[in-house]
Amino acid sequence: MTAFSVLDLVPVREGGTLGEAFAASVELAKAAEELGCKRFWVAEHHAMDGIAGGATSVVLAHIGNATSTIRIGSGGIMLPNHTPFQIAEQFGTLDALFPGRVDLGLGRAPGAGPELQRALRKDLHQAAEYFPQDVVELRALLTGDVDLPIAATPGLGAKVELWMLGSSLFGAQLAAKLGIPYAFAAHFAPAHLDAALELYRRDFQPSDALAQPYVSVAMNVFAAGSTEDAETLASSQQQSFVALRSGTPGKLPPPIEHYTVTLPAPYRAMLDSLGQAAAVGTPEQVRESIEAFVKRTDADEIILCGSTYDPKARIRSLQLTIEAVGHTANGGAAAVQ
To answer: 3-class SS at 74?
Structure first.
């Protein structure tokens, strides 16, 4: 049975505030918990007006305090931006506050221009080259499986679930070698999805943390009462994708009816490509799309993504989606197979 989880970018909408964005994320996490979703992840982004999750561990503490059972975690922490020791302390603290509920998803992409590199006082592209070694060091700081000259407190002994994130073959290969679960970011980079999952499963080496491969795949999902309403709902995120690709990112804009019709062909093609990892429509249409995606990927878990201008609309979309796939709050399992 396929589990379902939620990825939230903590979007800041046009005309909105940071405080409203954080409050909306809390309400979404509480709804996900009530609906029986397995985990709620927040992604690290920096220097973007429309995304408020930069201080990821702080946001997770806020969400963890407002919930009680759902797993909380990073989807993900971009490790080149940090030192392994700092992340061990941060997530060791989260584990002490919310024991048995914390995930640590790690990504390699520095995702930064010269300005951010200067602000972080790091050569992020060089740091990315040391990513595999840093992941091993971070795991050792948490587990103590390697004798290190310093101990992270909090950190050492924390029961944090370590994940590898990726949108290419590199992350799949590293996840397989380390024997940890793998999450693929198909919601914004689906090109290497099938090859990455095949490589991960083929080369997986069992570890103390995981006996067999475990795959989670992210997809954009927008459910509403009609196809037209769902497509309008999705248009805010589509506008954000186009703005990002055209070098003009900003806050999450209001929805626009029939938005894609107005776009030049290259941007329509880009959104069509993303559509292979998307489900947009009525609950029945969303269910059919998710079932087909699960059949394609054989995913153990689907991470539901999709920012909406109206936070209440996203909660309603999540409710309709979970009801459509037969997810149960007490079982945490779905009817999708």
So the answer is: strand
* Angle in degrees, 0-180, between the axes of helices 169-178 and 193-203, rounded to the nearest 10: 20
Position of tokens 């964005």? 21
DSSP, residue by residue, 110-150:
----HHHHHHHTS-HHHHHHTHHHHHHHHHHHHH--S--SS
Contact 154, 96 (CB under 8 A): yes
pLDDT of residue 332: 46
Contacts of 28 (CB under 8 A, 6+ apart): 6, 8, 40, 311, 314, 315, 318
Kindly list the structural domains of the chain, giving each domain's residue range(s) and its CATH number in brackets, ordered by start.
3-325 (3.20.20.30)
Per-residue pLDDT tens for 146-190?
989 999 999 999 999 999 999 999 999 999 999 999 999 999 999
Q: How confident is the model at residue 118 (pLDDT cuts 50, 70, 90)?
A: confident
Q: List, as one string, the DSSP characters of 218-285.
A: EEEEEE-SSHHHHHHHHHHHHHHHHHHHTT---SBPPP-TTGGGGS-HHHHHHHHHHGGGEEEESHHH
What is residue 334's predicted lDDT score, i.e. its pLDDT? 44
Q: Determine the Cα–Cα distance for residues 43 and 133; give it in Å rounded to an integer.
A: 22
Q: How many CB atoms lie within 10 A of CB 328?
A: 13
Read off the pLDDT band of 117 (50, 70, 90): confident
Amino acid code (one letter) for 332: G
Q: What is the mean pLDDT of the chain?
A: 94
Cα within 13 Å of Cα(112), Cβ side = 28
Other C-beta atoms closer than 10 Å to the C-beta of 252 total: 24
- In the Cβ-directed half-sphere of 205, how many Cα atoms lie within 13 Å? 6
CA distance 225 to 281: 8
Q: What is the DSSP letter of 193?
A: H
d(CA 234, CA 278): 10
**CB-count burial class (<10 Å; 0-12, 13-18, 19+) for 144:** middle
